[in-house]
Design a protein that fits this description.
Blueprint lengths: L2 H4 L5 H20 L5 H15 L22 H40 L4 H15 L8 H19 L11 H11 L3 H18 L11 H16 L9 H10 L4 H4 L16 H12 L7 H15 L4 H15 L4 H8 L25 H15 L62 H5 L9 H11 L2 E2 L2 E3 L18 E6 L6 E6 L2
Antiparallel strand pairs: 1-2, 2-4, 3-4
Helix pairs in contact: 2-4, 3-4, 4-5, 4-6, 4-14, 4-16, 5-14, 6-7, 6-8, 6-14, 7-8, 7-9, 8-9, 12-13, 12-14, 13-14
């Protein structure tokens, strides 16, 4: 151990973790619970635990009960249900905040160990968090953000010569877990495939690359094949990857789900642009001979412009790549020679604590997290900790729990009810739930062709999903462009009085 490290009483990574953790615990108490998928995935996990079997047919929706549907993210959903069983929504909030704070503290650790100044590290990590903050929800997709970051970091380490090829085989069990945790494993496999393809193309033309011999190329090919075969290690067999690609090719998702829409069409899309501009500027400063891994964030940036949900994946790969690129960026070196302390890089060999793994920076964060968890489990009321920390806002509507979820009370419509762990509300997520019997034409009714702006679309969706009493009423508003949603033969349909202009609407109810 470095003797200078043994005398230290504070580590920058510890400060990064504590800052992010406290900020998210304060600001995220309602923002992290604003997505209805949080409640939906938790209830799916509870259904799996209660029945002892995975979901293969729709047990929830009224119009398509019994239709084929897979609980694709069952591993994450079971984990969410177990956390909710122990500490309720407060526990889910604490777990999510800890994961996010730990992820970006680890990123800061890597940048500092590359010799980057602490203030510049804080700036880059802040831009990366801002680029992905619109997707900070308590949902299984956080698994993909974390695992893609770890996968990309391993690829960067191998290309830089810091780890041998055999260390990359840890990706195989990681992809097994990822396959059963979230659909984003497709992005991880694509990243691995693109990177290894770039290395294979660089090897014959004698460019700088990690493969010195043809034997290494063969071993790397076997690794990629093994990782792709992990998609078959799941309870659903080939049906699971088939469902992934059906969703990816669906033309309906971009129309009805905001996060599947284009970047520039969303008001929060501008949060991705500062990180994108910084990375493009850094990439231009290392041309014409970039490493293969440094090109991967550009692919994710292009995908983000087509679907904004890729923004957090671009951000995590970009910030990790910047840690490798900055020592080679020409304009950063020019700024350092001009007297800029911020861009003056230290020799990585002289960074304190660089050798070996030191647990001491994690002691204070671990103590803080365990204290918060203990307070929540014991129901001790403490400001910003203890029970009742998680809060849901009124724009998340509730309706009666479907069959099999009677243990979850339905909260009142409207208001700002605080969700306790014994009162998990069933929140309808018409875009992520099992098939609800709505086809392409009715789904288009949720968007008027000549309407502009995300706020107007959300207002129409809210009018279409009002929860009244014990049922879910689908009704028209004064907008003449609305199409009436025709119920399928399965539910019992009744006609209810419509708006003042005399039109009528369909009331869907279970038999």
């Amino acid at each position: 151990m470095d003797p200078r490290s043994s005398r230290r009483s504070w580590w920058p990574e510890t400060g990064v973790f504590l800052g992010i953790w406290l900020m998210l615990m304060i600001a995220g108490r309602s923002r992290l619970l604003r997505d209805p998928g949080t409640f939906w995935h938790t209830v799916v996990g509870q259904h799996i635990l209660a029945t002892g079997d995975l979901i293969r047919t729709d047990p929830f929706s009224f119009t398509r009960r019994g239709a084929p549907w897979l609980s694709r993210q069952w591993l994450s959903e079971v984990a969410m249900a177990l956390i909710h069983r122990i500490a309720g929504l407060d526990g889910l909030l604490l777990a999510t905040v800890t994961i996010l704070a730990g992820l970006y503290a680890w990123v800061a650790h890597r940048l500092i160990r590359r010799g980057i100044h602490v203030l510049l590290t804080a700036l880059v990590v802040t831009l990366a968090m801002a680029a992905g903050s619109f997707h900070f929800h308590i949902r299984p997709h956080l698994t993909s953000i974390v695992l893609l970051g770890w996968t990309f970091a391993r690829l960067c380490d191998f290309e830089a010569g810091r780890i041998p090829l055999v260390r990359l085989f840890w990706l195989v069990p990681l992809f097994v877990v990822w396959t059963n945790a979230h659909d984003g494993v497709v992005g991880g496999l694509a990243t691995l495939t693109l990177t290894t393809t770039g290395w294979a193309l660089a090897w014959p033309i004698r460019r700088a690359g990690p493969l010195a011999r043809g034997r290494g190329l063969l071993v790397l090919g076997l690794l990629v094949l093994a990782c792709w075969l992990t998609v078959l290690i799941n309870p659903f067999g080939l049906e699971l990857p088939r469902t992934w690609f059906q969703l990816l090719s669906s033309p309906v998702l971009p129309e009805v789900i905001d996060e599947h829409g284009p970047l520039l069409a969303r008001p929060y899309g501008v949060m991705v642009l500062p990180m994108g501009l910084l990375f493009v500027a850094a990439f231009a400063g290392i041309l014409p001979r970039p490493r293969v891994t440094w090109c991967i964030p550009l692919v994710w940036l292009a995908l983000t412009f087509s679907r904004i949900r890729h923004g957090p994946l671009f951000a995590i790969t970009a910030v990790l790549a910047l840690g490798e690129m900055l020592p080679h960026v020409r304009w950063a070196a020019w700024l350092a020679r001009s007297g800029s302390v911020l861009f003056r890089l230290r020799d990585p060999d002289q960074v304190v604590g660089r050798g070996g793994f030191d647990l001491r920076p994690t002691l204070l964060p671990a103590l803080l997290v365990l204290t918060a968890l203990t307070l929540q489990v014991l129901a001790v009321q403490v400001p910003r900790s203890g029970p009742g920390l998680g809060e849901a806002r009124s724009h998340t509507l509730a309706h009666r729990p479907p069959a099999g979820t009677e243990g979850h009370r339905a909260g009142p419509a409207g208001g700002h009810p605080r969700l306790q762990r014994d009162a998990l509300r069933w929140i309808p997520d018409l875009c992520h739930t099992p098939s609800v019997g709505l086809h392409r034409r009715p789904l288009r009714a949720l968007r008027r062709p000549h309407a502009a702006g995300l706020r107007a679309r959300r207002a129409r969706r809210a009018r279409a999903a009002r929860a009244v009493g014990a049922g879910l009423r689908i009704r028209t508003g004064p907008d003449p462009a609305w199409l009436r949603i025709r119920p399928l033969p399965e539910p019992r349909a009744e006609m209810a009085p419509g708006p003042p202009d005399g039109r009528r609407c369909a009331l869907l109810a279970p038999r």
